[in-house]
Amino acid sequence: MEGDNARKRRRGGDGAEEEARGGVASRLFAAAGDVARMEEENSRLRTRCADLEGTVHLLKENLAWEYSAAVPDDGYWESQGLQGERAVEQTAFAGYFCTLVRHYTCQMRKGKAPQAPEWRPGASGPGPENYIDLRAGPSLLWDDVFLPHWNELASALKVYHCLVGESDVLLALAISSMQLSKEALDVLGEGLSQFRSIGELIFYRNTNFAQVGNAAFQERPSDILSFALDVAKFSPRLTTITFAQNEIQNNAHLESLCDVVRDHPSLQQVRIPGCCGEGIDGLRILQRLIAAGGNKLREIVFSVNNVSTGGNTFLSDFLANNPPLKRLELGCNKLDENDARLIAASLKSNTNLSYLGLNGNKGASKGGGREALMRAIFDDTSLNTVIDCNHTCQISLFHGYSHLYNGPAIGFGPYEAASNRRRKISYILKMRNKEQSNVRHFESDGVTLKDIPHVLRGVQRNARNRAKRLSVVFEIMRGMIAPEF
């Protein structure tokens, strides 16, 4: 018995020791977690201190800063191989570019929002605030002489970020009609790396220049696209990206754009006209882009991109599902008459699209395709067919805004859908009134006596000519309300 009690006491003692060891281990584990959190916080503080030191250094430099990048002299471009009028043009473009960069640089180093100057060609005043518009002329060729100016701009962006911080104002950057080297992009990327408040990014015609001047320079549109996508990745507030007339010859690069669109939290407008080279399947890229955009894209510009459906109904099926897309531009592609008919049918169930650009597609602007699209917007067969039409979308079949259609002849829009519908009905009534045939048509239209007040109210609200308005009202009242007169 005594031996049993001794064994029990030993087992009880062993259990207490195990419990004590478990408690110690638990406290050690908790302490290790605290140490890890403290080390992480210490690392963040060190990073913050380093950032503050860098900020102080930048601001100290800014006190004694002077713009040091030189403008190339008049004879520089002739020494680089340009002759005659081309050398004169390049001298003017280069001078304007350097002056423009200096203007933005000085503004930002003073803590002022960058704003295009009022002295720029064709301007009636200063440009919008927080908009850096670098457009030096029809074509500015790259030369290493511009790199110091890009360095100045990038440094100014860093200083501006230090002075204003992450404000609610979104910065827009547009670089148009100039060649860009990898070195310039790297410098600019470093300057933009601190900004998380970039709202719009525009690259327009930075390639396909005449190969004159710097013979060693090789255009690489994929480098510019990669740069734009990198900026998009660290700019969560970016809403608009434009990459226009910069031909890409590799599917993978354009598909990487679709991946960024898919993953980005706030991107709503994607404008990439003229980017699909001859070897690119434009329809495939458009499908990827639409799939990536999900329900967040509100505008897609995909003109001049070799889109040919070959009978594929993807585009019309997409529009028929009434996505939240507001604007779709597919001008100067290879859409045929069958595509136009399918798109026209899809518009009957679409109430969100407000603009559809199809100019430059021969199948859509002629014959049966054009007729089908016009009928989708305004089918005057009867009042019922008018009511069933699309009253939201304006269609551009030709270049220029004078050919936007949402109504008979030249379009009624832009108006609200209900207003467009009333105007179309009023137009039909006025046309029938010329032959005094409204009442005769009402029977086939299914218009009854109880509908007459609504019809008359529509005429009163939308007929612009008082005499025409009274004529329509008198005809209807005489024919249906008091036929004995």
What are the defining features of this structure?
17 helices, extended, alpha/beta, 10-stranded mixed β-sheet, 485 residues
3D architecture notes:
It contains 17 helices and ten strands. The chain is of the alpha/beta class and 485 residues long. The chain has a ten-stranded mixed beta sheet with strand order 1-2-3-4-5-6-7-8-9-10. The radius of gyration is 33 Å and the shape is extended. It starts with a helix and ends with a helix.
Give a quick rundown of the structure:
Residues 407-412 have low confidence and may be disordered.
Approximate strand percentage: 5-15%
Strand order of the largest sheet: 1-2-3-4-5-6-7-8-9-10
By DSSP, the count of extended strands is 10
Count of helical regions: 17
List the helices and strands and how they pair.
Elements: H1 2-63, H2 76-79, H3 84-109, E1 131-140, H4 147-164, E2 171-178, H5 182-192, E3 198-204, H6 221-233, E4 240-244, H7 251-263, E5 269-271, H8 282-293, E6 299-301, H9 314-320, E7 327-329, H10 337-347, E8 355-357, H11 362-365, H12 367-377, H13 383-387, E9 394-396, E10 404-405, H14 417-433, H15 438-445, H16 452-462, H17 466-481
Parallel strand pairs: 1-2, 2-3, 3-4, 4-5, 5-6, 6-7, 7-8, 8-9
Antiparallel strand pairs: 9-10
Helix pairs in contact: 1-4, 3-4, 4-5, 5-6, 6-7, 7-8, 9-10, 10-12, 14-16, 16-17
